[in-house]
Design a protein that fits this description.
Blueprint (H helix, E strand, L loop, with lengths): L4 E4 L9 H8 L5 H9 L4 E2 L2 E2 L11 E4 L16 H8 L2 E4 L3 E6 L31 E2 L8 E7 L2 H12 L4 E9 L6 E5 L2 E4 L2 E4 L7 E10 L3 E8 L6 H8 L27 E7 L1 H4 L4 E3 L4 H10 L6
Parallel strand pairs: 8-15
Antiparallel strand pairs: 1-4, 2-3, 2-4, 5-6, 6-8, 7-8, 9-14, 9-15, 10-13, 11-12, 13-14, 15-16
C-alpha cells in the first residue's frame, strides 16, 4: 500500500511497549486512533496483529500506515499562557535529564475519548532550553495524584523505561482507606487479571505484590496506609486494598456498591504517588517526594490522621 512504512526495531528499542514507541515517534497520534489502527490491523508487528501493550523485540518489523501528520504536534496547537503556567507549576524536580511533576488528581496523563486536556498535550511547555519536548516514560491513573517522571532526552527515556520495566525504582504511595488492615505491616500477594472493565484477583492471574504499612488509623473505621507496589499491574494498589476489605476512599471503580460519598471531604480519589527512589538511576541516594494535594491534607486533618504517630 502506498505510503506504508516498514521499519526494523533497533536494539536500543528492544523491550519498549508499542504504545510508548508510538508516543515517542508520533507525539500527535492519539491513543484512541492508535488503538483503532491496531484493531483494524493497519499496524502490525512481524506481519501479525499487535496490542498497545506488546513489547517490541530488536529486529522485528513494524508496519506503519501513512502517519506523517502525527509526527509532530500541529502548528495550530499553541499553548496558552494559562496552560503553560499550569503545567510548569507542577514541576518539583528538574535537571538536564529528568523532570518530575506532581500531577493533580483528575488530570489524565494521555488523551483519549472525551479527554481534551492531559499532560501529554502540555509537554511542549516543558522544553525549557531543549529543542525536543520531554517524553513520558510511565503513567499513573487520571484520578491518582502525585509523582510523574519525564525524560528530557532519548538516553534517559531508555534508562527510565528499563528501570520501570525491571522495577528498580521504588515507588511509595499514600492511601486513605475505609477500615483498617488487620496486619499493620505486610505484603499483599494476590495475582491479578483484567476481567471485563476491572482488574480482579484471579488464582491463575499475573503475579502482583504490594507492601503495605498502616501509618495511622481511627480504630477500624479509617486508616492512612503506605503502599509500595513491587510489581506493576494496572490498578494494583486499588485492587489489592479492596481485596483485603479496605477500599480507597473516593474510588469509583474498586469500592463496591456501598461507595461512600462523605459530605465533609472532597469527592476525589485518595491515592497519592508520594515518593520515588531514583538512586538506581543516579548511582547515589536520590529520593524525591511530592507534597500531598489539598483535598488529601484536608481529609487527613478532618479524620485526625497523621503521617507519623
Amino acid at each position: 500500500m502506498a505510503g506504508v512504512t516498514i521499519i526494523k526495531i533497533k536494539p536500543e528499542d528492544g523491550g519498549i511497549r508499542l504504545n510508548r514507541w508510538f508516543l515517542r515517534e508520533y507525539p500527535a497520534l492519539s491513543l484512541s486512533r492508535l488503538q483503532k489502527l491496531l484493531r483494524t490491523k493497519q499496524i502490525k508487528v512481524d506481519g501479525k496483529k499487535a496490542e498497545t501493550s506488546t513489547r517490541l523485540v530488536a529486529g522485528q518489523e513494524l508496519r506503519i500506515p501513512p502517519l506523517d501528520n502525527e509526527k509532530a504536534v500541529p502548528d495550530n496547537k499553541i499553548l496558552s499562557a494559562k496552560d503553560i503556567e499550569y503545567i510548569t507549576s507542577m514541576v518539583i524536580f528538574k535537571d538536564k535529564n529528568i523532570i518530575v511533576l506532581n500531577k493533580p488528581s483528575g488530570l489524565a496523563v494521555q488523551g483519549g475519548t472525551n479527554t481534551a486536556r492531559h499532560i501529554d498535550g502540555l509537554l511542549d511547555a516543558l522544553k525549557f532550553e531543549n529543542v525536543e519536548r520531554p517524553k513520558l516514560v510511565h503513567r499513573i491513573d487520571k484520578d491518582t495524584s502525585g509523582l510523574l517522571l519525564l525524560a528530557r532526552n532519548r538516553q534517559y527515556a531508555d534508562i527510565l523505561t528499563k528501570a520501570f520495566r525491571e522495577h528498580t525504582l521504588q515507588k511509595t504511595y499514600l492511601a486513605l482507606v475505609r477500615g483498617c488492615p488487620i496486619h499493620k505491616e505486610g505484603t499483599i500477594d494476590f495475582p491479578l487479571e483484567k476481567v471485563g472493565e476491572r482488574m480482579e484477583v484471579v488464582d491463575d492471574g499475573q503475579k502482583a505484590l504490594t507492601e503495605i504499612r498502616v501509618l495511622d488509623n481511627i480504630g477500624k473505621k479509617y486508616a492512612l496506609v503506605e503502599a509500595k507496589p513491587l510489581t506493576g499491574r494496572t490498578h494494583q494498589i486499588r485492587v489489592h486494598l479492596e481485596s483485603i476489605g479496605t477500599p480507597i476512599l473516593g474510588d469509583n471503580k474498586y469500592y463496591g456498591a456501598e461507595r461512600l460519598r462523605l459530605k465533609d471531604i472532597a469527592d476525589k480519589l485518595y491515592l497519592h504517588a508520594y515518593k520515588i527512589d531514583l538512586s538506581a538511576v543516579y548511582g547515589k541516594k536520590t529520593i524525591i517526594e511530592a507534597a500531598l494535594p489539598k483535598h488529601f491534607v484536608d481529609a487527613c486533618q478532618f479524620f485526625g490522621l497523621e503521617m507519623e504517630k
